[in-house]
C-alpha cells in the first residue's frame, strides 16, 4: 500500500504541512504510524484530493464568482513599467509568474515588490489581482 509522509501529502494537495497535520488530527483524512512517522494512506489522500476538487473552500474568496480556477497566491517581486505597459513578476509558491498588463492597471492595483497578489491563470492569460 502506498503511503505519504505529512510533508509529501501537503505538497501534493498544495497546502502547508501544518494544514495537513490539522486535517489528520481532525479526522478529515486517515493516518497511521510507520517507523514512528505519521503517514497518510494513498487511497485516503486521493479521496481527500477528490473531495477538495469537487467541493473547494472558495466561499470566503472571490474564486466562487470567477471562471479562472487556477488562482495562485504569491508576492510581487518585480514591476517594470513604461508609458503604456507593465511587466509584473510574482513568486507563487514554487512558481514564477509573469504578467503583462497596462501600466494604468498595475498602478491602480498598487503592484510593487513586496505586495501580496493573486495570479489567476486561464489558458494563456495571467490575471493579477490584490487579495
Automatic annotation (TrEMBL):
Top-level division of the source organism's lineage: Bacteria
Keyword Transport applies: no
Domain Mop as annotated: residue spans: 65-130
InterPro entries recorded: HTH_17, Mo/tungstate-bd_C_term_dom, Mop_domain, SinI_DNA-bd, Transp-assoc_OB_typ1
Keywords, alphabetical: Molybdenum
Pfam families found in the cross-reference section: HTH_17, TOBE
NCBIfam families: excise
Protein name as catalogued: TOBE domain-containing protein
Organism field: Nocardioides mangrovi
The organism's taxonomic lineage, starting at the top: Bacteria, Bacillati, Actinomycetota, Actinomycetes, Propionibacteriales
Amino acid at each position: 500500500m502506498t503511503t505519504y509522509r505529512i510533508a509529501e501529502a501537503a505538497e501534493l494537495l498544495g497546502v502547508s504541512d501544518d494544514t495537513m497535520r490539522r486535517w489528520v488530527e481532525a479526522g478529515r483524512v486517515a493516518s497511521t504510524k510507520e517507523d514512528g512517522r505519521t503517514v497518510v494512506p494513498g487511497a485516503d489522500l486521493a479521496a481527500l484530493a477528490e473531495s477538495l476538487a469537487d467541493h473547494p473552500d472558495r466561499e470566503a474568496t472571490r474564486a466562487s464568482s470567477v471562471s479562472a480556477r487556477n488562482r495562485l497566491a504569491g508576492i510581487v517581486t518585480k514591476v517594470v513599467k513604461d508609458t503604456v505597459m507593465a511587466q509584473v513578476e510574482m513568486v507563487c509558491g514554487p512558481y514564477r509568474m509573469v504578467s503583462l498588463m497596462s501600466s494604468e492597471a498595475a498602478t491602480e492595483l498598487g503592484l510593487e515588490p513586496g505586495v501580496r497578489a493573486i495570479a489567476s491563470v486561464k489558458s494563456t492569460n495571467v490575471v493579477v489581482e490584490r487579495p
